[in-house]
Amino acid sequence: MKKLIEVQSLTKFFPVLGGVFSRPVGWVKAVDNISFHIFEGETFSLVGETGSGKTTTGKTVIRLIEPTKGKIIFDGKDITSFSVSEMRPLRRSMQIIFQDPYGSLNPRMPVGEIIKEPLVVHNIGSKKEQEERVVEIMRLVGLRPEYLRRYPHEFSGGQRQRIGIARAIVLNPKFVVADEPVSALDASIQAQVLNLLLELQQKLALTYLLVAHNLAVVRHVSDRVGVMYLGKLVEVAETRELFDNPLHPYTQALLSAIPVPDPDVKKERILLQGDLPSPINPPSGCRFRTRCRYAKDICAEKEPPLIDVGDGHYVACHFVKVGKKAEYTPST
Amino acid sequence: MENNEILLDVKDLQTYFFTDDGVVKAVDGMSFTIRRGEVLGLVGESGCGKSVASLSIMRLIDKPGKTVGGEILFKGEDLLKKTEEEMRKIRGSEIAMIFQEPMTSLNPVFTIGDQIMEAILLHQDLSEEEAQKRTIELLKLVGIPEPERRFRQYPHELSGGMRQRAMIAMAISCNPDLLISDEATTALDETIQAQILELMKDLQKKIGMAILFITHDLALVAEMSNNVAVTYTGKIVEYSDARNVFKNPKHPYTYGLLRSVPNLLSKETKVELPAIEGMVPSPYNMPKGCHFSPRCPFATDICRREMPELEELLTNHFVRCFHPVEISKEVV
User: Fold this and answer.
1) Which of A164, A236, B162, B218 could join A226 in a cystine, given CB atoms 3.0 to 4.6 angstroms apart?
2) Is B327 left (phi over 0), alpha (psi -120 to 50) or beta?
3) What is the ipTM for the molecules in this complex?
4) pTM value?
5) Which residues of A touch B197 (CB under 8 A)?
6) What is the pLDDT of residues B272-315, one digit of tens each?
């Protein structure tokens, strides 16, 4: 399988400004030295809790945020140091869908204009062709073309998310970052939008990077999943493998925390102690050690590398051995 | 403890909002009961009236809203007939409430300790010193580490999970008989949500309080509740114990919702979800007959003409539908 995206040692620190001269007095280590790849045509998901760096990663991959360090290879080209004008033609093939369907659409622009704007910006086609394309895309995402002249406030949340999706795919991109695309939507609307995303992926051969915290949704739509904790990638595996056989103690706790709609299932819950530490001053060694029930001295001293334990299942934990995932015995 | 005693008996509650654009029947004839020590889950999408129902019980509905009909019998006495003075004594001491966003429900200029102490001093005959001791005990009870230090801290110094714990400490400070939890864990991360849910279950057992558990998340209800009421457009459409509702849903809305929301137990992934079509109707433009009929795959002429009553279809299983889902289909 061809890798469409390859991310190497990606790092993003945000400065914490302080003092009279607003100098950096510290750094928020939002994303700290992570590497992963995304195959062409697949859905790769990043999961994790607030502050884990998943959204920053998603935005950095398409250079909406500039990385502090690291390399981003898109379709064989190292785009990390591309200038704005070099990026422009590439922008057509990478798009993003945002979480908030209320805040991400210009309220003063009719829907037809919103969807057409990328075509105008990139100067694609004649006026007539652009208008035809808008109608075609509206039909594709399940919006009635006669609503072309309506404004965003006249649409419901689910329909607005369809507008956001239409705008993202109008340029026929290869790669779409979907940042929490359904978490602001009501339960009965979520399924409609998820179905649309799956359908578009098949029809247009899209590659998705999905950023989400709802693990049930992630399990449903993803091919592979990466779990993030405090700016680090702690586990990556194929979806089924990750959910059936989670190896990192954090992934195990995260999965056990999800309620299931069946009163007969009594889940054995792994309760994590305390809260997420500050990303400004993360724990030494393994960042999860302060909440990990298996933590030992080595976890504070050495940072565990992300290692392949077989079949593309990667884990960053001192107690998981290479090629021997069955022998995971982190007890005292 | 008299386990079977009915604590709260809501009969045909109607709370309407009289707006310039028309009357919104936010709660339109809801009836439900909660026995001592029991958890009732009130579940529905945004705009189904679940929060308005809880605010009606607390008599916290403001203009243009008004509770125009029904009875709210709490320990046999109708709360709607109480004076404001009498209600103030009940609120906080006998019925307590926790909300979704603990930051906006806590006063930012008072310390956590002061705010919890205020409730204790208001409702209980304790000296300041005793109240302080009790507050620290409560902080310990809800699992806040270093309670003496936290006592003197301000809300912004606490994390989201800690704030929600402080809110719970405040809510249970006077040993209420009923706790209303309105989306109390929605804004929290999964692992923190798990901590708070365990805490609520634990406290419910320890001090024997009943909980009205309001949420949009079906899976959470399955986990927390004895009984479940599913609401749609201000009416209860299905009402029974949790097993019946989740294992044998009879209302097409409940059935559709359970099938369409991805969950960790579903066998197939990356397939089209059986989504419910359309969306919740506008409160200003309710369809004739059954409000779910425009989205219902089983709807016939009678559904579009008349609103069905909530009837006992099976023992202790109430459904508001002319064509309840017949066969017990495997849902999850």
Assistant:
1) A236
2) beta
3) 0.86
4) 0.90
5) 259
6) 999 999 888 988 889 999 999 999 999 999 999 999 999 999 99
